[in-house]
Design a protein that fits this description.
With 365 residues, the protein is an alpha/beta fold. The chain has two domains: 199 residues, Quinone Oxidoreductase, Chain A, domain 1 (Alpha-Beta Complex), CATH 3.90.180; 136 residues, 3-Layer(aba) Sandwich (Rossmann fold), CATH 3.40.50. It is built from ten helices and 17 strands. α10 links the parallel β16 and β17. α4 runs parallel beside α5. The chain is globular. The mean pLDDT is 95. It comes from Bailinhaonella thermotolerans.
Length: 365
């Protein structure tokens, strides 16, 4: 079948919206007509020089849409279902069976290469050349996506799909890190470094958890203003030379938890240094260099925890986030700005500059 997709052909090239040929769903797969696809910072890995992500490739890993066809052996998902797409996992390894699917033995291969596990070509361009189409098991910067039924989460049909799209990664990662991985306790303090989609989702989740002191740190005053509206009790400019001392002061000796979404080594050092003894720092961004910590920082029982996808199992956690949103306690829709898929390059620029928090692309608009 012929579908429309935003194809990235080189790290420095703009996306090109093209007509491509896509196979029908195979065993265990579903074909989803994409209604909205969030643009996440992780999609920027496609622009990292080198061979991390081969080209040409269709990126996008926060898709939401309607199931149009199901392949042989699919259970739990049927034609007409509305679904949110999340990361892929094997469902068979020890971590998957233990409820730790983000740490699947095959996570990197299934999510960060865009490659088919069996080496087959499922999508070709108009010249017949293969286009990688399995980024995070979905490659949702397109009008349609082929996914394993396992990473499609069925949601109620009364919800606006484009609003729900960011649940597949960004919102799930921020909220899951607070509620599932860090298990932020009521009455505690947390400092969130980076007020993008992941960081602001963490701020909202910290309010849900009942944290008494919620600090947001960013370089953009507009984002800090939104953080205050979403639950932050204190906000600080990340350029403040006294930032660590400021966090330590307002938390009465250091935060119980800190959470870095930037991956910047200096910011991570500040996040760890802002903890009280026995505090825990969660890291979710891919690192941008070596992290140097004072050797005494960890000697007082502080912990640094790497987190993937908020430690969340999508089919369990995404329905919970939707219920919190219905109650008005997790208004993640306030992060979203929509763009037609044809304006993907403008959406990417706005996201990179910080002008937009969560671009959501609308195929067919």
């Amino acid at each position: 079948m012929v579908v429309e997709a935003a194809v990235l052909r080189d790290v420095a090239a703009p996306y090109s919206v093209e007509r491509v040929e896509m196979e029908e769903p195979g065993a265990g797969e579903v074909l989803v007509r994409i209604a909205g696809a969030g643009m996440c910072h992780t999609d920027m890995l496609g622009r990292v020089p080198g061979d991390l992500v081969a080209k040409p490739v269709i990126l996008g890993h926060e898709g939401a849409g309607v199931v149009e066809a199901v392949g042989p052996g699919v259970t739990g998902v049927q034609e007409g279902d509305h679904v949110v797409l999340s990361y892929d996992s094997c469902g068979r390894c020890g971590n998957c069976l233990a409820g730790s699917a983000p740490y699947c033995d095959e996570f990197l291969l299934r999510n960060l290469t865009g490659l088919e596990l069996d080496g087959r070509t499922r999508v070709t361009d108009e010249s017949g050349k293969a286009v990688l189409s399995r980024w995070f098991g979905q490659s949702s910067f397109a009008s349609h996506s082929l996914v394993e039924a396992r990473n499609a989460v069925v949601i109620p049909k009364d919800l606006r799909l484009e609003t729900m799209a960011p649940l597949g990664c960004g919102v799930q990662t921020g909220a899951g890190s607070v509620l599932v991985a860090l298990k932020v306790a009521a009455g505690s303090s947390i400092a969130v470094f980076g007020a993008g989609a992941v960081g602001l989702s963490a701020v909202m989740a910290a309010r849900v958890a009942g944290a008494a002191t919620i600090i947001a740190v960013d370089l953009h005053e507009k984002r800090l203003e939104l953080a205050r509206e979403l639950g932050a009790t204190h906000t600080f400019d990340g350029r403040d030379p006294e930032l660590q001392a400021q966090v330590t002061a307002v938390t009465g000796g250091g935060a119980h938890y800190s959470f870095d979404t930037t991956g910047v080594p200096g910011v991570i050092a500040t996040a760890v240094g802002s903890l009280r003894p026995t505090g825990v720092c969660g890291l979710v961004a891919l690192g941008q260099g070596d992290i140097v910590l004072d050797p005494n920082v960890l000697a007082l029982g502080r912990t640094v925890m790497g987190i993937f996808e908020g430690n969340a199992v999508p089919r369990v956690f995404i329905p919970r986030l939707i219920e919190l949103w219905r109650q008005g306690r997790m208004p993640f829709d306030r992060l979203v700005t929509t763009y037609p898929l044809s304006e993907i390059n403008a959406a990417e620029a706005a996201s990179h500059s910080g002008d937009v928090i969560k671009p959501v692309l609308l195929p067919g608009s």
